[in-house]
Amino acid sequence: MTTPDLDSLRLLVLVDELGSIGQAAASLGIAQPSASKRLSTVERRLGLVLVDRTRRGSALTPDGRVIAGWAHRVLSEIDGLLDGAEALRTQHEAHLRVAASMTLAEYLVPGWIGELKRGDPGLYLGLEVTNSDQAAEMAREGKVDLGFVESPGSLPGLSSRRVATDRLVLVVPASHPWARKRRPVTAAELAITPLVVRELGSGTRETVDAALRKAGVGPAKPLLELGSASAVRNAVIAGAGPAVISELAIARDVADRRLVAVAVDGVDFGRELRAVWPAGRRLAGPAAELLGIAVRNAKSR
């Protein structure tokens, strides 16, 4: 007896589920005559009549329904095998899973990864680029081996280590009145000025809000809320309004006078950038190596 092919078994199961060869054929994207021919081939191979063909239509015979039930179990097992094989392949390939907030992912993490890869060219590394809240949550839940965040607050359930320092800068386009301001902008002025900001959950947004609260003021309602440092930078260059953004993102624009950095009096926009991983877990292998590279680079900055 010759074993039926999997596509024919899928067709038989669909005939059982949908009640007609025509609907089953349409579901598989094949012509009805082709489907009928395929079912006839299965019948010959098994030596059983599986389909009762009449002028009113076609339906599975009692034997056909039994075979369809067994076929459904075979296909489920095949799907389980394929899913399991994919999971094992991903597990073997993704030797290191990393999540990083957008500023870190754009300006710092690629250099650290490059150094790690030069020491281990065969290493497979998966990098998830997101905001700080999401990166911390992925590390907390064990979805990544290591996270990099900009969040200034506490990080429950996580161990952390500083890997860099950063400074946020108030920037405006050259046409903005603050670009010609001789004195620093005060905390009070900044607090009543709508800014182009990052989305909630962003480490940059949290740092700005925390720094203003520490200065005794609160942030104004945002002018625009955007999902990346690049989008904020581009909006400011286009004249949308002021923004407070990482100096990593705008250093070249300030040097080229596309943006003007404005001093702010009484607000500390310095921050630490941290690596995070689940509390109580000891980093080892590529994750520990990547953390070491990040820390060494922080010392050299």
TrEMBL record:
Residues 4-61 form the HTH lysR-type domain. SUPFAM superfamilies: Periplasmic binding protein-like II, Winged helix' DNA-binding domain. GO terms for molecular function: DNA-binding transcription factor activity; transcription cis-regulatory region binding. Keywords: DNA-binding, Transcription, Transcription regulation. Gene3D superfamilies: Periplasmic binding protein-like II, Winged helix-like DNA-binding domain superfamily/Winged helix DNA-binding domain. Pfam families: HTH_1, LysR_substrate. Belongs to the LysR transcriptional regulatory family. PANTHER family: HTH-TYPE TRANSCRIPTIONAL REGULATOR, HTH-TYPE TRANSCRIPTIONAL REGULATOR CYSL. This is HTH lysR-type domain-containing protein.
